[in-house]
Sequence to fold (83 residues):
Amino acid sequence: MRGALPAEAPMRVAADLDLCQGHQMCLIEAPEVFGFDDDADQVVVLTEHPDPTWAGKVATAVQYCPTRALSIIDDEGARRARP
Fold:
């Protein structure tokens, strides 16, 4: 599976809105976690702590963000390396 993380891995999803340019690749990969604000032309994190079963989708969305605006943060606050 692309961008796979262990299903049990605790995670928090963050978006850097200063970097987001509204490409919406994250919505294609993980629509359960990411939305889009048309007025601001930016990503919206719908679920900051997504279900662990979505870990692969979230990792793929982070990997394919063209501006690197998305991050997965572990339970200790460290940003995980991009896949």
In short: The chain has a mean pLDDT of 86. The chain has one domain: 12-73. The radius of gyration is 12 Å.
